[in-house]
């Protein structure tokens, strides 16, 4: 019995200790295998099957194949390696994996469509700083448990429609520091539980009016440092739960196209960054949020029954009065542009049609037919409009229907009726003089 005890101590116990891979360190409770910074070029063999955490970061691993992982683990770190290729199904044996970190692999420029097949319990996926240029349309297929997705600081130019449609439990999506140029209508479809969306430091010029329609639970949205000149009227209405919004660092255009966003800010109670106007020149340097209602007095009002933010030519009383007092020498029938995306219309052609999608199915323009009353309104030329832009309040003392009798607004020239009064007095005076002369010399 003594001999058997010695053999058990010498053979069985050391055998359990040697289960840890060479050059790695193993810890119990929870079972952890640490193989970091050992210059491994492949995933080392001999990792215990019941390992809960496996750390392989800071090595020189170049490929991940379907047979690379013969163990069952919950946390797998592979960041800061030289991974260039991941075979489809490479992680399919890791059925209980909850966290996978592949960040800081600058040679990982593309991924196979089924790279993450089988990871239906994955909750956190890190792929930051990998120089990824594109993502396969089925890359996140069936990752129903994913909550955190880190894709920042790659080289993504475009996000396909329905790319994230299976990520119904995703709460955090980090896409900042890429080269994304536009957000399409269905790019975020399915993200019904998303809480924060980081899109700053990209090149976004266009956001579809329905791009955020599934993001009803979004509380944090970062879009600063992009190339946005405007946001469609419907876009922000779909994120009513927003609490923190950053839109600074964009070349905002504060003409009529800014009215939907300005009106949204008037009703929203959120923490927001500044929105500095870059155009038109009279508005440059002003904060879009703090413009006055009269700054949009000449703009067609958005149609309240339209989700697209299209316009009607319904003018306010103040606007009609402003027109009546500023009749130019000639009058012509004004043409208005009706856009399915944003409020584009001016009382004159601005010569700018910025950032409209090239796809005719997503945007169209048509000539707007005016009613008889609106035809009577004269056309306002650009020079006259900008000469009075921003000074409307200073010149308006009272509305036409509210002015007291005999009120004459000094800001505007006398009307034709006021000019007729002196002529009548002159005629009466001349008649009186003629009558007197007739009586004297009759």
From TrEMBL:
Keywords (A to Z) from UniProt: Leucine-rich repeat, Repeat, Signal
Lineage start: Eukaryota, Metazoa, Chordata, Craniata, Vertebrata
Protein's name in the database: Reticulon 4 receptor-like 2b
Boundaries of every LRRCT domain copy: 250-300
Pfam families registered for this protein in UniProt: LRR_8 (PF13855)
GO cellular component: cell projection; membrane raft; perikaryon; plasma membrane
Highest taxon in the source lineage: Eukaryota
Signal sequence annotation: 1-19
């Amino acid at each position: 019995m003594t001999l058997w005890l010695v053999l058990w101590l010498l053979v069985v116990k050391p055998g359990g200790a040697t289960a840890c891979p060479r050059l790695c360190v193993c810890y119990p409770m929870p079972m952890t295998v640490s193989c970091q910074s050992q210059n491994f070029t492949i995933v080392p063999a001999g990792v215990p099957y019941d390992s809960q955490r496996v750390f392989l970061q800071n090595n020189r691993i170049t490929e991940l194949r379907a047979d690379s992982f013969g163990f069952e683990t919950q946390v797998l770190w592979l960041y800061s390696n030289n991974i260039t290729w991941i075979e489809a199904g490479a992680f399919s044996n890791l059925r209980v994996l909850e966290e996978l970190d592949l960040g800081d692999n600058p040679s990982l420029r593309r991924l196979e469509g089924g790279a993450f097949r089988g990871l239906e319990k994955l909750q956190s996926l890190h792929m930051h700083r990998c120089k990824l240029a594109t993502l396969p349309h089925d890359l996140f297929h069936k990752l129903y448990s994913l909550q955190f997705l880190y894709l920042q600081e790659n080289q993504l130019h475009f996000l396909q429609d329905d790319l994230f449609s299976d990520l119904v439990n995703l709460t955090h999506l980090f896409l900042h520091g890429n080269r994304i140029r536009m957000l399409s209508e269905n790019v975020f479809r399915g993200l019904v539980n998303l809480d924060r969306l980081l899109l700053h430091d990209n090149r976004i010029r266009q956001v579809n009016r329905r791009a955020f329609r599934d993001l009803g639970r979004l509380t944090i949205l970062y879009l600063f440092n992009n190339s946005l000149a405007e946001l469609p009227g419907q876009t922000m209405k779909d994120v009513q739960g927003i609490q923190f919004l950053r839109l600074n660092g964009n070349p905002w255009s504060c003409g009529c196209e800014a009215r939907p966003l300005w009106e949204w800010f008037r009703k929203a109670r959120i923490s927001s960054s500044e929105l500095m106007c870059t155009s038109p020149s009279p508005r440059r340097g002003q904060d879009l949020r703090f413009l006055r209602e009269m700054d949009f007095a000449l703009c067609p009002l958005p149609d309240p029954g339209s989700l697209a933010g299209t316009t009607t030519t319904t003018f306010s009383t103040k606007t009609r009065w402003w027109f009546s007092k500023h009749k130019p020498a000639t009058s012509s029938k004004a043409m208005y542009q009706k856009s399915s995306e944003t409020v584009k219309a001016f009382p004159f052609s601005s010569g700018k049609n910025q950032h409209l999608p090239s796809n005719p199915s997503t945007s169209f323009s048509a000539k707007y037919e005016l009613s008889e009353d609106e035809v009577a309104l004269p056309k306002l030329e650009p020079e006259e409009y900008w000469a009075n832009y921003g000074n409307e309040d200073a010149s308006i003392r009272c509305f036409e229907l509210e002015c007291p009798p005999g009120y004459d607004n000094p800001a505007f020239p006398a009307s034709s009726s006021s000019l007729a009064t002196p002529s009548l007095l002159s005629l009466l005076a001349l008649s009186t003089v003629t009558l007197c002369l007739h009586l004297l010399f009759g």
